Amino acid sequence: MSFTSALKNRLTKPESAGSGYHSFWQYIHIDVPLLTSIILLITAGLIILYSASSQNLALVEQQVLHIGLGLVVMLVFAQIHPSTWQRWALWIYLLGIVLLITVLATGHIGKGAERWLNLGFMRFQPSEMMKLALPMFLAWHYHRIHLPLSASAILFSIIIIFIPVLLTAKQPDLSTALLLIIAGGSVLLLAGLSWYLIGTLITMGALCAPLVWYILRDYQRQRVLTFLNPERDPLGAGYHIIQSKIAIGSGGLFGKGWLNGTQSHLQFLPEHTTDFIFAVCGEEFGLAGNLIVICIFMAIIGRGLYITMHAQDTFNRLLAGSLTLTFFVSFFVNMGMVTGILPVAGLPLPLISYGGSSMMTLMATFGILMSIQTHRKLLTT
Amino acid sequence: MRKRVAIKDHQQEIQLINRRCISTLVIMVILVLLLIARLVWLQLINHNHFTTLSQKNWLDLVPLEPTRGLIYDRNGLLLAENIPVYSLDIIPNKISNMPKTLADIARIVPLSDDDIAQFHRELKQHRRFDEVTLKLRLSEEEVARFSENQYRLPGVRVKAHLIRHYPFVNSLSHVLGYVGRINIDELKEIDTTNYSASNYIGKLGIEKFYEDELHGTVGYEQAENDASGQALRVLNQIKPVPGKNLYLTLDTKLQAEVEKALAGHRGAVVAIQPATGQILAMVSEPSYDPNLFVAGINNKDFQALQESPDRPLYNRALRGLYPYGSTIKPFIAVGGLDLGVITPNYAISDPGWYKLPTSSHIFHDHKRGGHGTVNLFRAVIVSCDTYFFDLAHRLGIQRLDNVLQKFGFGQLTGVDLDEELPGVLASPAWKRKVKGVSWYEGDTLNSGIGQGFMQVTALQLATGVAIIANHGKRFIPHLLLAEQTPGQSLEMQASTQHDPVKLDNPANWNIVINAMVGVIMAPGGTGYHFGKALYSVAAKTGTAQNHSIKVYNSNIDHEDQSALPEKLRDNSLFIAFAPVDKPKIAIAVIVENDLGAPQIARQILDYYLLGPPLVLPIAPANNTKVQGTAAHVIH
C-alpha cells in the first residue's frame, strides 16, 4: 500500500516533467512504446508456443517463468544509469573475455559442455554477456576518440571484436559468434565506418569464404551445402528446411488455424518450439499472422532507432543503435532460415522461441534501451 | 579548450550517427520486404503445392487387402479357405540391437535357422519402418508366451493374418494349384494398385486361372500419420471388395475315390460329365501338399519334392503326354466308317502281322498268330492291330489326323487351367519340323495303333470319349460351375459347346459304341479285367509302350512285363463312358508302368454310378491302398 501511495505522490510531484502519466513510467524508467511492443510479441509468442508444444502447459508455464524473470532483469537494467555502463565498459569487457577463456578451459576438462559456466544456483553463458559487453566497450571507446574513425581505431576495433568472436566460435557456437560480429560491427557502422571500407570488408570476407570452409566443422559444412540445395539430403540435413517450407507454405493466407497445424503436431517439423517456431506461426496463422509478428518486430526496431537518435551522447547512441541492429539481425536471420532464404544457423526467434538464456540477454538489452531513453536529460536544444 | 572541441565533435557525431541510423533503417526495411516477398511466394503463390506436400506428409493411404474368394466343390464342400494365422513381426527402425533382440525372441519362441535367414533376406528389401515377418504361423501357446514378454521387446509384435489353406491337402493340389508370395516377374504383370495390399497371388491351377475373380478389389484407409510413420487414427475408409467365391464342377467324394483307386500308382484320371463337359474328377498321382507353398516352401522340402522319382509336382492329367495305345482305335474307327474307307462288315484276315505292299518290313500284331478273320466289331473288341494297320494305311496320315483333330486331339482342350499341354498330332509336316526327317508310311501304321509319335493327355482322352458318348456333341471341358459375389446368389456358368463332330451317317456312332460295349461284354474282349457291371459300359483299353523302348514291334512278350524294370513296363490306358444309353460319366485312366487301368476305372465308375461300396465317411487325403475290384461290394 505504501509503495503505491508513494508512487502516486511521486506522480503528483511537480518536479517531474511532462504529464503525470508519462512521469510514472519515467520514474520507473520504463519506455511505454517499447514495453507495449514487447508484451504484444511475448503474448503472441506464448499463444504460438502453446500450440507448437502440442498444448504442453508445463512448457508454457516454464516460458512464462522465463518471461517473468526477464521482465525483472529488464526493470533492473532500466534503473542502471547509462553512465554506469560507460564507466565500467572496459572492465565488463575484460571480465567477459576472462569468463570466455574460463569456459573454454573448464569445457576442455569437462568434455563437451563448453558454453556454460555453472555458478551453482544458475548456469551462466559468458557469450550472452559478451553480446552486451562488446558494443558497450566499443561505444565507450568511440565516445572517447574523435569520429569519424581513423585507420588505427578501425584496426583496434576489429581486434576487440575478434577476440570474443574467436573464443565463442571455438566453443563452438557459430551463431552466437555471428551475432557478436554483428553487435561489434554495428557499432563500427553507426560510428561512420566508410561505406567504401564496408564494401571492401565484405568483398574480402567473400574471398575468404573458401578459407572459412576449412575451419568449419563437418556438421556446419553440411548446413551450408544443405542450404544451397535442401533436396540434396531430404531425410537428413535438408529435412528441417523442407519441412519448414511445407509448414509455412501450407499455411496460406490465413493459416490452418490455431492448434491445427499438422506439420508441427505430427512431429514433421523439427525443433518446432525453438528455432523453427516461426514456421508454426506461418502454418497456423498464415501470411496474415506472419505479417503481424513481423510488424511488431519492426515496431521494436523503430522504437530502438528512435531511442538511438534521441539519445544523450555518442556512447548512448552507439550502444542503443548497436543493440537495435543486433536484435534485427537475430530475428531476421531466424526468419530467413525458417523460410529458406538463409542457411540453417541455429538461432532462436527472439522473445518467441522457447528458452531461458537468450530471453535474459534480450530483456537486459531492452532494459538498457529503456534506461538510455528514460535517463536522458531533457535538453532544451 | 578540449571540451569545446568535444562539443563541436558531438554535433558532428550526432549527425553522423543519425545519418547512419537512417541508412540502416532503409537497409532493414529492404531486407524485411525481401522476407515478406519470400513469405508471399511460399504462402500465396506456392500455397497449393505445399498443401499437397503437407497432406502427403500426414495423410497416408493405407491399402487394405481384399479377402480372397473361397473355392467350393459342386456339393458346396470347402476346398480352399482363408484361415487366421499369427505372425511375429519386427519393425526394424525400432530395434537398436537386432542380434540381441533375435536372441531374446528365440528364448520365447523357437526360431529355426531358416526363419532367421529368411528374415535377414527380407530385411534388406523393406524400408526401415515397414514391419518384416520373422516367423509365420505361431502356435497359440507361442502367441501367449510372447504376449507375456511383449513389454520387454518394443518393436516386435504379433499380427493376425489370413492365409490360404487347403483342407484337402494333397487331394486337389493339381487342380486347385496354390497361392504364393508375389514374385518380381508377376509384379510386372499385375495391376500394382489393386495388389498394393496383397502378398499372395495364384501360382498354379484354379488359383492362377481365376486369379482376377478370386483376388477382389483393394480397399483404402486414409490414416493420419506422424513423422515416424505411426498411424494415429483412421479418417476415412473404402472397404476392400472380397474376391468371388468359386464353385467347381469337381465332386470331391468322387475325387477322393479316384485317388483311393489310383493310390500307389503313377498316373492320371479325368472324369467328365458328357452332357455338359463338366469335369467331375481330375487326379494326378502322386501329389503334394499345396499348403507348403503358401508360406514359402523351404529348400529341403522343395528339393525332396523335385527330386522324388515319382515326380509329385508333375501334373500328369494336364501335362503328362502319353502314347494313346489302342485307345486311339475307336476314334479312327469312327473316321474310317464315316469316310467310307471301311464298312462295319469289312473284314480282314489277320495272320498276326501286317506288311506294306511296298516294303519288306513286318508289323506285328500284339497277338502272335493273329486274330483270324476280324471285322470292325471284332477289331475293336480284341484290339486287333493288323486291322488298324490296314485302316491307317488306307486312310492315310492326312485323313487320320483330320479325324483325330475333330475330337480335339493335338490341341488344347480349352479347359480353365493354364498348365494344359496340347499333346502331339503327328503329321509329315510335324515330323519334318520337330524331328527333321521325312514321314514314312510305317509312321502312319504306328499312328493307327496309337504308337509312334502320337501323344495325348488324360484330359484329351476323357474329352474325346465324351464326344463319342455324346454322338458328336463336343463341350469344352471345364471346372468352373458357378461364381458367387459374396452376399449374392450363385451365377451358374453355362457350358460352352465346341463345333460338334458331324458324321455323314450318325448311325456310325452306334456302330463304334456297340463295339466299345463289346470290349467289356464280348468273349475275348480286352476289357475282361473290368468285369461285368450292373450298368452298361462302352470302353476301350490301351497298352502303350514307353518311349524308352523305341521300336514297338520288337519281340518283347507283353505277358512278361514283370521281368522288366518297373519304369520300362508298359503304361495301361482305359477310356469309357457309362451308362451307354444315357451317359453320365466319361472317363480316361492312364497308369504308368502298370496294367491296372481297367480295374481302377471299374472302381471309379462303380462308385459314381452305384454309390459308395461301404458307407464310410470320406476322409480327405486318404491314402489307403485299394487293390483291384475284388474287394468291392456292389449294391
Description of the structure:
The complex is a heterodimer of chains A (381) and B (635). By secondary structure, chain A is an all-alpha fold. Chain A contains 15 helices and two strands. In chain A, strand 1 and strand 2 form a beta hairpin. In chain A, helix 3 packs antiparallel against helix 4 and helix 5 (82-110) crosses helix 7. The model of chain A is unreliable at 9-21 (pLDDT under 50). The termini of chain B are far apart. Chain B is of the alpha+beta class and 635 residues long. In chain B, a hairpin with a 5-residue loop joins strand 2 and strand 3. Residues 1-8, 548-558 and 620-635 of chain B have low confidence and may be disordered. Chain B is built from 20 helices and 23 strands. Chain B has two domains: 61-248, Penicillin-binding protein 2a (Domain 2) (Alpha-Beta Complex), CATH 3.90.1310; 316-482 and 499-594, Beta-lactamase. In chain B, helix 13 packs antiparallel against helix 19 and helix 15 packs across helix 17 (441-448). Classes of the chains: A mainly alpha (381), B alpha+beta (635).
